[in-house]
Write a structure and sequence with these properties.
The structure holds two protein chains of two kinds.
Chain A: E1 3-7, E2 10-14, E3 19-26, E4 30-38, E5 45-51, E6 56-59, E7 62-67, E8 72-77, E9 86-96, E10 99-104, E11 108-113
Parallel strand pairs in A: 2-11
Antiparallel strand pairs in A: 1-3, 3-8, 4-5, 4-9, 6-7, 7-8, 9-10, 9-11
Chain B: E1 5-7, E2 10-13, E3 19-24, E4 31-38, E5 42-50, E6 53-57, E7 64-68, E8 74-78, E9 87-94, E10 104-105, E11 109-113
Parallel strand pairs in B: 2-11
Antiparallel strand pairs in B: 1-3, 3-8, 4-5, 4-9, 5-6, 7-8, 9-10, 9-11
Classes of the chains: A mainly beta, B mainly beta.
């Protein structure tokens, strides 16, 4: 069964600290993995996308890693800011005959405190 | 260029009523997908339209339906509303062949059923 599990469910950190969010998946056939940031009441915004052959991708203070062998991904946030407070969603896509299927994790809710 | 536009942003309906939500994709994007997001269930895929045809469908009852017009704009309809239909409804658009990279969400329509 295609599944995406994220941990932790929620996280509270102090401004300026680093943190790492985890995403484990069982999706086949794997096409790519994307991390989204979703502010409360808004639509998700893409942070990074990685295909099977990529094992790291950065977007400013956000760095995503992918281990396709263990089917794990992480999102590392460096020097957190108050504006990083949001939900972070891991989405894995599978593709069969050109048709994409998207499997969403339930997200990690991050709260950055001053 | 303009992003994905969803209207209305907020909606309050009574149980038993029906509702229609609208999504205008990014210019040039021909695929539109709809999602339901609730605190307990996270993001759940409703359906995807491409060139006015439903290409994929999630596991939702027949009360949820959609359509896509020749200009790629899409509407989602929910009939006989239930309290549990209260959620943030998101649509995302993508360019053919870029189902992964060009996947952009709108800000959503917040539906409250009372």
């Amino acid at each position: 069964k295609n599944q995406v599990e994220q941990s932790p469910q929620s996280l509270i950190i102090l401004e300026g600290k680093n943190c790492t969010l985890q995403c484990n998946y069982t999706v086949s056939p794997f096409s790519n993995l994307r991390w989204y940031k979703q502010d409360t009441g808004r639509g998700p915004v893409s942070l990074t996308i990685m295909t099977f052959s990529e094992n790291t991708k950065s977007n400013g203070r956000y760095t995503a890693t992918l281990d396709a062998d263990t089917k794990q991904s992480s999102l590392h946030i460096t020097a957190s800011q108050l504006s990083d407070s949001a939900s972070y969603i891991c989405v894995v896509s599978a593709t069969t005959s050109g048709t994409y299927k998207y499997i969403f994790g339930t997200g990690t809710r991050l709260k950055v405190l001053a | 260029k303009a992003g994905v536009t969803q209207t209305p942003r907020y909606l309050i309906k009574t149980r038993g009523q029906q509702v229609t939500l609208s999504c205008s994709p990014i210019s040039g994007h021909r695929s539109v997908s709809w999602y339901q997001q609730t605190p307990g269930q996270g993001l759940q895929f409703l359906f995807e339209y491409f060139s006015e045809t439903q290409r994929n469908k999630g596991n939702f009852p027949g009360r949820f339906s959609g359509r896509q017009f020749s200009n790629s704009r899409s509407e989602m309809n929910v009939s006989t509303l239930e309290l549990g239909d209260s959620a943030l409804y998101l649509c995302a658009s993508s360019f053919p062949g870029q189902g992964a990279r060009g996947y952009t969400f709108g800000s959503g329509t917040r539906l409250t059923v009372v």
